[in-house]
């Protein structure tokens, strides 16, 4: 029942918000409570799976195992936070007439936001890998409208690039799905082939290794474009920087991981079918390449939101490296890093959204002395940047340390990649912190060095209610991963190995 | 129950595939957007025929569902939508290509030959004569359509022609699905059709907005985002 309710609530919220656009206060209230109930349901499903194992619903259409549950919980928390910070963000933009169509535009915004959350929840809770593909394509379509929300030339250009590149990419992924189905048809007895994960994961050992290798290459190219792997990442910084900031947080924090989630399912099938590290090594290679490509763009970046976007390419690469290393430790580290990155990057985008609105620009050189303009925003920014670069006691520190040690304990290739990753992380740390210190402390030039800087609207209750728990979450996972979350993270390794998914408990 | 034998279905799919390939090649050579849209719709008709034939041979209500989806989306919805955008747009209706037509056609033929060279062995080795279903040209044609679509997307300037290229690519995948497994599970096919439809609608919408901003739907103007 719970997984079904989880898919109904965002749809109802989306439609109700759109209908209520003439009454902004009512619309905002529905948005907030709809998002909070969505989060409560998502966390309830996750806890349920952690305690009692995988769940099915709608006669097998939905299937939630530990990997899905981690994703559901993450989407729930970050999605609810995005909905809450949107209220203050959108009010500000409405006040300065930046929202096309005014109040009606705000109605479309909330419709798009909850619709977008729905597509992500759908993607990670369906059993059928073909429907998984459908879900990932649907996330592109839903979020593209939000990327182009401001309807400026640059925003439309970003939306166009995003839709075209990701849709072409995903067409390749469809070919990968087709090849997988072909492999399943060949092995299945008496035409009972299906793309259901619950079936395929059990029969993975009998799938034709050559076909599965080819399928995985197509899947990696297709979903990899969507996940932001270099060299198909060129759309990412545009889309993530020109979207409204609460949306940027969702795009970077959870949407990239949704595409990676799709890759991981096929990674497991390919690994079991071939009995080799073929797909794991590909993940390792693309992960390292993504981190390496993102590094120079982080060092010389001039746009604060693009800085965060390139940091997301780096971290999705890091998560890919972790799952590529594999084994219980690698998978645990990757899962933990996925969650840590989601919380930290969402926090950074939400706070940066406030800063960009205060200063009216995304140019790093024009944003100076945030700590004077707003101490709270300044401290949160510093917290986020130090956390995302892996300074203890942040959660990212623990997960990066785990990834590095998993690599060093692995084979020679994995150890070499781990060392290269750690070196690159050091360079990125220096670059990010240098940008952040200038933004937080720098003087705005001799003329207004003594001024207190631009002031923004006061932080309202929903904004604080979203940001403070997020900031806490960023640090908490660095100190302790409480039950039943840790049990859930440990179960993900079981999902991604041959030892059994359905019968894991 | 079976209205067609597997062998007959194979022949129908084979002929439809060749027809789609011919339309795809001709699409590279056309000068007017209207003609390109009509060719795309005709591709959809042939795809519908292939889907219908393959599913008829398998038997069951799936036949009509798959056939109906292909017709509704590829023949009616997408072409009508593209036509609508085309007529709302004030720009000239010529296809604008980065590569001159005299060069584009030989290049496209080269792509088709390449597709045959790559896919023909697979088609005869692993797929050939499966349950008597033999469509030797289907997989190479599918691969060729994929490449032709990608070629169209990368050489054409107008947003609308890029959508046409994308739909051509997707037609290729559909055809491969029919050739290799005689279609995907019906729920998946339905979902894919829905996605393709909304995707094309969305692109048409964005193209329309871009047009309002920049007066012409020339994606070459979309070059301000760098780095």
In summary, what is this structure?
Chain A is mainly alpha-helical and 505 residues long. Chain A is built from 19 helices and two strands. Chain A starts with a helix and ends in a 10-residue tail after the last helix.
Q: Tell the overall outline of chain B.
A: globular
Alpha-beta classification of chain A:
mainly alpha
**Quick one: biggest sheet of chain B?**
none
Name the helicity range of chain A.
Answer: over 70%
Low-confidence stretches of chain B: none
Explain how this protein is built.
Chain A is mostly helical. In chain A, 77% of the residues lie in helices and 1% in strands. Chain A contains 19 helices and two strands. Chain A has helices at 2-19, 24-52, 66-95, 102-125, 129-147, 153-187, 197-203, 209-227, 236-242, 245-274, 278-299, 304-325, 327-359, 370-373, 375-388, 395-409, 412-441, 461-479, 485-495; strands spanning 55-57, 62-64. Chain A has a two-stranded antiparallel ribbon with strand order 1-2. In chain A, α3 (66-95) runs parallel beside α13 and α6 (153-187) runs antiparallel to α8 (209-227). The longest helix of chain A is centred in the middle third of the chain and has 35 residues, at 153-187. Chain A is globular. Chain B has 227 residues and is mainly α. Chain B has helices at residues 6-29, 33-58, 62-88, 101-127, 138-155, 159-181, 186-214. In chain B, α1 runs antiparallel to α2. The interface between A and B is large, with 40 and 36 residues.
């Amino acid at each position: 029942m719970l997984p079904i309710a989880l898919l109904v609530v965002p749809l109802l919220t989306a439609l109700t918000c759109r209908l209520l656009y003439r009454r902004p206060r009512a619309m905002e209230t529905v948005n907030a409570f709809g998002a909070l109930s969505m989060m409560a349901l998502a966390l309830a499903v996750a806890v349920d799976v952690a305690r009692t194992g995988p769940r099915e619903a709608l006669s097998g259409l939905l299937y939630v195992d530990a990997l899905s549950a981690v994703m559901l919980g993450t989407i729930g928390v970050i999605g609810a936070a995005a909905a809450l910070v949107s209220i203050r963000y959108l009010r500000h933009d409405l006040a300065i007439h930046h929202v096309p169509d005014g109040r009606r535009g705000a109605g479309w915004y909330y419709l798009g936001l909850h619709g977008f959350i729905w597509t992500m929840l759908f993607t990670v809770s369906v059993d059928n890998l073909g429907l998984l593909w459908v879900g990932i394509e649907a996330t592109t379509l839903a979020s593209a409208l939000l990327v182009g929300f401001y309807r400026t030339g640059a925003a439309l250009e970003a939306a166009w690039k995003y839709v075209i590149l990701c849709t072409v990419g995903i067409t390749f992924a469809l070919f990968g799905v087709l090849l997988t189905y072909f492999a399943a048809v060949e092995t299945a007895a008496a035409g009972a082939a299906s793309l259901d994960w619950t079936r395929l994961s059990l029969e993975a050992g009998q799938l034709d290794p050559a076909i599965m290798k080819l399928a995985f290459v197509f899947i990696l190219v297709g979903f990899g474009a969507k996940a932001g792997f270099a060299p198909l990442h060129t759309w990412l910084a545009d889309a993530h920087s020109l979207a409204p900031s609460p949306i940027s947080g969702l795009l970077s924090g959870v949407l990239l991981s949704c595409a990676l989630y799709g890759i991981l399912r096929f990674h497991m099938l390919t690994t079991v079918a071939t009995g080799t590290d073929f797909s794991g090594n590909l993940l390792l290679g693309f992960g390292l390449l993504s981190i390496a490509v993102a590094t120079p763009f982080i060092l010389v970046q001039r746009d604060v939101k693009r800085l965060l976007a390139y940091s997301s390419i780096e971290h999705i690469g890091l998560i890919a490296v972790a799952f590529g290393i594999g084994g219980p430790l690698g998978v645990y580290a990757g899962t933990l890093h996925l969650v840590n990155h989601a919380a930290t990057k969402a926090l950074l985008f939400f706070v940066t959204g406030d800063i960009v609105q205060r200063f009216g620009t995304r140019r790093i050189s024009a944003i100076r002395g945030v700590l004077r303009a707003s101490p709270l925003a300044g401290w949160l920014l510093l917290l986020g940047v130090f956390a995302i670069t892996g300074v203890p006691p942040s959660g990212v520190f623990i997960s990066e340390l785990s990834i590095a040690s998993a690599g060093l304990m692995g084979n020679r290739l994995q150890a070499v990649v781990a060392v290269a990753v750690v070196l690159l992380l050091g360079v990125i740390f220096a670059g990010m912190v240098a940008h952040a210190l200038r933004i937080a402390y720098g003087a705005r030039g001799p003329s207004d060095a003594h001024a207190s800087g631009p002031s923004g609207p006061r932080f309202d209750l929903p904004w604080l209610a979203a940001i403070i728990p997020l900031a806490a979450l960023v640090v908490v996972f660095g100190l302790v991963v409480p039950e039943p979350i840790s049990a859930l993270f440990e179960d993900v390794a079981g999902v991604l190995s041959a030892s059994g998914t359905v019968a894991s408990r | 129950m079976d209205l067609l034998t597997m062998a007959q279905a194979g022949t129908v799919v084979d002929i439809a595939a060749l027809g789609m390939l011919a339309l795809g090649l001709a699409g590279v050579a056309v000068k007017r957007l209207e003609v390109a849209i009509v060719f795309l719709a005709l591709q959809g008709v042939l795809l519908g025929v292939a889907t219908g034939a393959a599913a008829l041979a398998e038997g069951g209500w799936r036949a009509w569902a798959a056939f109906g989806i292909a017709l509704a989306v590829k023949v009616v919805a997408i072409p009508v939508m593209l036509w609508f955008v085309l007529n709302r747009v004030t720009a000239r209706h010529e296809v604008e290509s980065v590569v001159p037509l005299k060069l584009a056609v030989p290049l496209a033929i080269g792509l088709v030959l390449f597709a045959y060279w790559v896919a023909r062995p697979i088609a005869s080795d692993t797929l050939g004569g499966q349950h008597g279903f033999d469509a030797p040209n289907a997989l190479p044609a599918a691969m060729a359509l994929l490449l032709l679509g990608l070629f169209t997307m990368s050489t054409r300037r107008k947003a609308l022609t890029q959508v046409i290229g994308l739909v051509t690519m997707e037609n290729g995948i559909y055809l491969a699905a029919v050739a290799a497994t005689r279609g995907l599970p019906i729920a998946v096919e339905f979902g894919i059709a829905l996605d393709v439809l909304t995707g094309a609608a969305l692109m048409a919408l964005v193209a329309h907005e871009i047009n309002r901003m920049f007066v012409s739907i020339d994606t070459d103007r979309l070059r301000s985002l760098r780095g």
